[in-house]
Amino acid sequence: MKEQYIKAVKIVAATQLLIFCSYFVSVEFYTNIQVAFLSSFIIMFGSFHAHKRMVDSKIKTKSFESDRDALDLIDDPHELYDETPLNDAKPEELDLKQIVKEEKKKIKTFNLKTMKEGSSASFSLFRLGGYLFLVLGFIALKNNEVLDIGVYLISLLPGIIIGYLVSKEIFTK
Description:
This protein is mainly alpha-helical. Helix content is 71%, strand content 0%.
């Protein structure tokens, strides 16, 4: 576990060293790159962290469906193409009211519990902090007339990539 953190710190330190080299081009260039990098890095790291917490809590409470694979859930979310027969009875013998009641029980309703489960990854403090840093950093650059939109937008990409690599290193092993 310690090796993962050391590797993650090395990745971030090497990236910061490369970003610091841009300081010799100009202070404005360096500031744009640093704010954009940190914004996107914090957002990616926070997203991975929130997702891991959500998955861990679902595993802990065993509130996940493991009978269908992810691709099948995407292709056929309502099991319309399921080949198992629903009922072998003749159409005249079917109790449609009972079938409708059983199918309504299967439908997940939108309530406070499902809303909490779905929003736990969205409202992570790391992630929201990253978005707050993104907005405030952008405004600060703009107000101080330092913002170079081309450099800023391009500099978001390394933060996303490094955030992904560091998060993958820390959260997946």
